[in-house]
Amino acid sequence: MDTKISRMARDFTLTDSESIKVSIPADVCHPGEGYNPRILVGRITTDHRINFSAFRDTVISSFRPRWEMEISHLGNSRYLFAFNHSVDLDRVVEGGPWNFDNDMIILKKLN
Question: Percentage of the chain with pLDDT > 90?
C-alpha cells in the first residue's frame, strides 16, 4: 500500500548544504577481514535528547532483523545501522517510513 506519507518519505531528499559526512567506526567496518556490512545512516527529526538504549531496543524490535545488526550513535540525532545481510536492509528500506517517539527516522543507504 503506497500511502501519502510513504510517498513523501520515499521522495524526501537533502540539499548539498544539508548533507553531512559520516565517519564509520572501525569496529563496525572490520577493514581487511572481507566483511562488507550493508549500512544505513539515519537521523531522527527531533531536537530532543534521545535515550540510546531505548532507541536501539525499539528499533531492533521494529526492524525485526533475521541476522545480527549493529546500531551506533553518531551524535546530533544521527545513527548508523549496519546489517549483516541485505535481506534485512532491504526489508527496512521498503518497510518505511519509520518513527521513534512520534518523530520520523530518515534513512539513507550509505554508498
Answer: 24
Helix (H) or strand (E) holding 110: none
| Residue 70 grid coordinates | 549493529
Which residue bears the cell 526489508? Answer: 91
22 domain residue, yes or no: no
Residue 12 is assigned to a structural domain of this protein: no
Using pLDDT thresholds of 50, 70 and 90, give the confidence band for residue 24: low
Q: Long-range contacts for 48-56 (Cβ within 8 Å, ≥24 apart)?
A: 48/103, 50/77, 50/100, 50/101, 55/79, 55/100
Q: Residue 25 is which amino acid?
A: P
Q: What is the structure's pLDDT at 109? A: 84
CB 39 within 8 A of CB 24: yes
Query: Which run of H or of E encompasses 1?
Result: none
Cell representation of residue 12: 524526501
DSSP for residue 84: S
Domain count, the chain: 1
